[in-house]
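Tip: read the tokens left to right.
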């Protein structure tokens, strides 16, 4: 049974932590809830005690003979703070320990996950951004807040992610332990399939569901990265801990990805952009012609986003491309690896009811350095971690090379 500390900050989103607590306990984990005094103004001590089955305290003077301000942190195998207020993030970043929770954060030697929740202006304030950067540099996971309804009538970034999403990323962090090999890195992932308008109701597209891209985004976040996910026409739930950018067409995907890649250490092109688009887009729905014979549709070639990124790749930046093929997969992928100047390319054979929309994937990884590995059918979450294992190895090699005299 994993020992988890659930820290609860003093924000209106504290009530959502009750659902997170339930997810932990129903999964068989032991949970000690450590709220701040302000948090108890939103959800009372009896609620936390009843849901966790354990006593609840906020101050270092409660049960002082058991030295809780040291013991709780030492015993924890995972600490999750949800909601993490701006005040709490500031205290954690500066080592302030004025209650039981902040003392626990100083004594914990296990992974710590912060799930911030606050008004948009507070999240975007330079002081908060600096505190978040400090915590991430020290190896903590600070997941990006969601965009949505805040307190009152306000709407924006700062909403606590869904408890189930926090639970998922927390469990992934726990499985990896302190091996946060992407901590301090900015990872850009693209996902889904683009749609090229033909008229106001029709488009050219493909069968990509975005599942592999979303698995990659979640894996990168759990390994400590700051993640930007550029999502094209995906209907999956928003993953916790990422900056989500929604796009529709290949040109929109290109613009968002190029912009995000400018500050990225790693770019993973898991989306399936349309290779072609209609030369013109009809302003009204295209009607059937007399006799039922449609007019010919002229197509033009879309930009090759991965190739553009490869040509502009900065020293030390890692580019991972994807090759979804219906035939001659390895031969075609090796050509793409060279043309796109990628460091890695992920090869899979696709088709109707094959890979697209499925939860499992069979891939071959090819590296520009000659690396080759084929993996049998695996869950897409596992495929994502295998890809980032190779990415992390290359990033580490760069660091070691830079440190050599």
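Filled-in amino acids:
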């Amino acid at each position: 049974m994993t020992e988890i500390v659930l820290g609860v900050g003093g924000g209106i989103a504290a009530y959502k932590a009750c659902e997170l607590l339930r997810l932990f306990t129903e999964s068989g984990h032991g949970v000690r809830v450590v709220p701040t005094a302000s948090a108890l103004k939103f959800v009372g001590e009896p609620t936390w005690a009843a849901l966790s089955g354990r006593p609840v305290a906020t101050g270092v003077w409660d049960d002082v003979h058991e030295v809780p301000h040291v013991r709780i942190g030492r015993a924890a195998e995972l600490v999750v703070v949800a909601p993490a207020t701006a005040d709490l993030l500031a205290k954690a970043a500066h080592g302030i320990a004025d209650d039981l929770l902040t003392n626990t954060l100083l004594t914990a030697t296990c992974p710590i996950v912060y799930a911030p929740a606050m008004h948009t202006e507070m999240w975007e304030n330079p002081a908060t951004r600096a505190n978040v950067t400090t915590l991430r540099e020290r190896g903590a996971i600070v997941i990006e807040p969601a965009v949505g309804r805040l307190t009152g009538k306000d709407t924006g970034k700062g909403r606590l992610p869904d408890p189930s999403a926090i639970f998922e990323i927390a469990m992934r962090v726990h499985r990896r332990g302190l091996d946060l090999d992407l901590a301090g890195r900015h990872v850009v992932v693209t996902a889904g399939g683009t749609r090229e308008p033909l008229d106001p109701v029709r488009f050219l597209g493909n069968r990509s569901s975005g599942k592999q891209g979303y698995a990659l985004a979640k894996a990168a976040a759990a390994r400590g990265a700051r993640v930007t996910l550029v999502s094209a026409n995906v209907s999956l739930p928003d993953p916790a801990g990422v900056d989500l950018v929604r796009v529709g067409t290949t040109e929109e995907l290109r613009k968002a990805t190029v912009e995000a890649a400018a500050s990225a250490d790693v770019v993973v092109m898991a989306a399936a952009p349309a290779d072609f688009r209609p030369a013109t887009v009809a302003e009204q729905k295209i009607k059937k012609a007399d006799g039922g014979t449609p007019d010919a549709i002229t197509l033009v070639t879309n930009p090759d986003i991965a190739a553009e990124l490869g040509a502009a790749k900065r020293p030390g930046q890692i580019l991972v491309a994807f090759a979804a093929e219906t035939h001659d997969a390895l031969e075609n992928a090796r050509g793409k690896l060279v043309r796109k100047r990628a460091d890695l390319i992920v090869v899979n054979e696709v088709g109707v009811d094959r890979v697209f929309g499925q939860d499992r994937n069979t891939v071959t990884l090819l590296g520009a350095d000659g690396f080759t590995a084929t993996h049998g059918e695996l869950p897409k979450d596992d495929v994502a971690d295998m890809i980032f294992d190779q990415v992390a190895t290359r990033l580490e090699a760069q660091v070691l090379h830079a440190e050599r005299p």
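The CA atoms of residues 95 and 284 lie 62 Å apart. The first helix runs from residue 17 to 26.
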